[in-house]
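Thread: Newbie trying to understand structure tokens

Hi all, I'm a second-year student working on a class project, and my supervisor (Dr. K.) asked me to get a predicted structure for one chain before our next meeting. I've only ever worked with sequences, so writing a 3D structure as a token string is new to me. If someone could post the tokens and maybe explain what I'm looking at, I'd be very grateful. Here's the chain:
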Amino acid sequence: APLGWDEQQLWLDYQEKTEVQISMDPHAILIELNFEDIIHAVETNELSQSLQAAFKALSKHTPKTVDISVLKAVVEPQLRRF
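---
Reply by user tm_fold:
Sure, no problem. This is what the structure looks like when written as tokens:
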């Protein structure tokens, strides 16, 4: 979908702000998630290698293991809005 009026600039500003915050915190970990991979995983119940790596990294820092059910719980309600 094409980006809205200032959506691209908002994303660039957010990315820059995130990079600054991460550079200030030596314990910060950046985990990148691809939107298309997330949607594909929710629709097909299959995880890409990048999502598997992201879940593994997230699971190291959470009390419970992060898996596809967590992703679906977050993404599926949002998909209903479209």
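A couple of things are worth pointing out once you decode it. The chain has two domains: 1-27, 31-82. The chain has a mean pLDDT of 80. Feel free to ask follow-ups in this thread.
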